[in-house]
User: Fold ATP-binding protein from Sphingomonas aurantiaca.
Amino acid sequence: MTVSVNMGTDGNGTAVGVDLEELLATRLLVQGNSGSGKSHLLRRLLERSAGHVQQIVIDPEGDFVTLAGPHGHVVIEAGDYSEREIARIATRLREHRTSAVLSLEGLEVEGQMRCAASFLSALFDAPREHWYPVLVVVDEAQMFAPVTGGEVSEEVRRASLAAMTNLMCRGRKRGLAGVIATQRLAKLAKNVAAEASNFLMGRTFLDIDMARAADLLGMERRQAEAIRDLQRGTFMALGPAVSRRPITVKIGDVATSARSGSPKLTPLPSAAPMDLQDLLSEPVVDAPELGLLFDSRPRRVPAEELLDGIARPPEPRTAAPPPPEKTDDEVEAVYADVFRAIVEDPESTLRPPSVLFQDFQVRCRMGGLAKPPLDLPGFVRRLSCARAGIFDMTDEAWTAALDVASGLPDDMLGAFLLVARAAREGEPCPSDARIAATYGTSSIGRVKRLIGYIESRELIVCRTDLAGKRSITIPGLGWTTLPAEAA
Assistant:
């Protein structure tokens, strides 16, 4: 059975798939600096292949435990068990073909390496009758297969490196397919990285890492600069399971999210410095002892109970009935209300479209749309229409206006539609200030260049009369605004 896992799109918008059977035989290496989107890529691969192959995730930060809910992965908190219990759990996982996430969060680096070594070795040493195909994903692989020992003991480094080497070098015959992700190729042991035949290389800035990535991709050294220019979530792919020639892949969306995320700026406290100084210098008074009402820590699952749970087949899940589908007119009504609320928010002009898109999805769910069919590009175009005062997209006249402006970039669409609405309704030509607000700028010079660009595309014709008043005609629609002052 051939299974293609859709990972995203290439530069032409064509879907890029990963041949799962080929991946099981040839292994995968993912590289990219922190923030390049490695975890997002791994999550996409895990989500899309969850129903086709057993999955084991070595998770140093505990980010992949969210796969347990929708996909049924067993979460193993490594800090709750001994090395012997970890090895027994790994053996039981292979026997019953159960997907799992080994969360190493809370352990020191040496403890994480020791635990991963015991776990991977037990997977490798499983009896022959349990050699079923399994995707073994190791995040932050440079930690478990380091070039040098660093601050850990040589015994632990050797054990961890041997387990990773067995996974990548000898694991194929035992059904183990390694998928390793690393921030630094220079810190990853070469004998581990060299066994992968498929590569997904993300953004990196150090010359030594770019050179190694270019060598693995079969690129010349002078072409390695392209790796530095990759956007977040975009990778260069090569390998028998992906493509025979290097291609650029924009990784698609995921359904689950990590427990931790990228830091966001938040406003500082508004209190006066003197008040804050007084607050910090106040004497600390211990709170009275009220007794422990509940234990906020997660319950430690005994090893025997966890092993029994792995052996016991999962209970069938009954899905909640889907909400009744709305008609197209009802969906458009929800859209109109949501976009009107977004545009009326004075802070919306300062927020990027990606942030407003999240707000849009939440408001749609509150309006009864479980999953809004609009994607981000479609949202940006509708937002441009809303900022121009156009909320009813069932009107054929606005469909014609969008067709006329189809060649314009999305950020210019709002300014064009603002002029089109004034022209259709016989209103005075919008001023430069109104166009600037719709365009998201305060520069009148940028507005003049914008109008000049749209006119150069022969979408509008500007005319200034002897009184200095401007009117704009849209030839493709036959609409003209009334003359008005441009200032």
Summary: Residues 290-296 have pLDDT under 50 and may be disordered. The longest strand covers residues 243-251. DSSP finds 19 helices and 15 strands in the chain.
